[in-house]
Design goal:
five-stranded mixed sheet, seven-stranded mixed sheet, Metallo-beta-lactamase, Chain A, 306 residues, 10 helices, alpha/beta
């Protein structure tokens, strides 16, 4: 059940525009920005500030390794406490999703090596969206591994603006909605789910475990900024429709809190069924984000803000 503490309004159809970066949003949320509206989804109440704080955590959370571990099949976790990075292992080499901050690349490399893999075997580097906390480290990963950097076309301008230490952002292949990236028998499909950025990309793939095949979704953030323009509303409407229709048994994302990573990891030690296999929880983050966008639009309409 979803409760929105604001009148419901329809999404408005218009052309897409980008929203502000996560850094500006985070600074606003921690400063003078109002912390409303609030929405209640599946019995839990959220505000813009609580969602952002949940996702980002502290500076220490963003840069401290979370225990590297197997998620399902050939997918492993190699990120920090709150900024995710995933390793997909194949006999032909490995795929890395999300380099996070440049300063985290050595942290990711160490996690990969702790699992018994070679960081130099990274052949392809993907990302969820063009914000520094997810793709700032792309240039360093390419420098260390020679990996092919693959990006969604709509995020190219934003990525080109991310230049840690003056480094040009590497882009080796530009893809479009529905195209695939393949390494060995592993195939990832790129789904354009805009709103948070213009090229926000939700990746899907199949994973096998225990003789069964599961649908895995690496979700891109669907979090809105403090203001949602009519154009941005249309971007989010599209993204919500896409995510709602995707088959999913295992939901992952660009922040661990989006899929309950810490709680699921704690359950692994107890044995039993893989806690990451959670079809019922696959669309919760989408529900939270959709409710918040609708609530923000309702507030803006009431205040006469276009």
């Amino acid at each position: 059940m979803i409760t929105v503490r604001a009148a419901r309004v329809p999404f408005i159809v218009a052309a897409s525009v980008a929203i502000g970066t996560v850094f500006g949003q985070y600074a606003q949320a921690q400063g003078q920005a109002p912390d409303h509206p609030s929405v209640t989804v599946r019995g839990q109440t959220y505000t813009p500030r609580s969602i952002l704080a949940r996702n980002m955590g502290s500076d220490e959370d963003q840069t401290t390794a979370f225990p590297p571990h197997k998620i399902i099949g050939n997918i492993y976790y190699v990120g920090t406490r709150t900024l995710t990075s995933f390793l997909i292992v194949t006999p032909q080499g490995n795929i890395l999703i999300n380099s996070t901050y440049e300063r985290n690349v050595p942290v990711i490399q160490h996690s990969v090596e702790q699992l018994g893999f070679k960081f130099s075997d990274t052949k392809i580097l993907l990302g969820n969206h063009a914000h520094g906390d997810h793709q700032e480290g792309d240039a360093l990963v390419k420098q260390l591994t020679g990996a092919q950097v693959v990006v969604m076309s709509e995020d190219v301008p934003a990525l080109q603006a991310i230049k840690p230490g003056g480094k040009e952002h590497p882009i080796d292949r530009t893809i479009h909605d529905g195209e695939t990236v393949k390494l060995g028998d592993t195939v990832l499909t790129a789904h354009l789910t805009p709103g948070h950025t213009r090229g926000c990309t939700t990746w899907t793939m199949k994973a096998r475990e225990g003789g069964r095949t599961y649908d895995v979704m690496f979700g891109c953030s669907l979090r809105a900024g403090n203001r949602v323009t009519p154009e941005n509303a249309e971007e989010f409407r599209r993204a919500f429709d896409v995510v709602r229709a995707l088959p999913c048994d295992v939901q992952l994302g660009d922040h661990g809190a989006q899929f309950g990573m810490q709680a699921k990891f704690a359950r692994i030690a107890g044995g039993g069924a893989n806690p990451y296999i959670d079809p019922a929880g696959c669309k919760v983050e989408m529900e939270i984000s959709e409710a918040m966008v609708r609530a923000i639009l309702a507030e803006q309409q009431k205040a006469g803000t276009p």
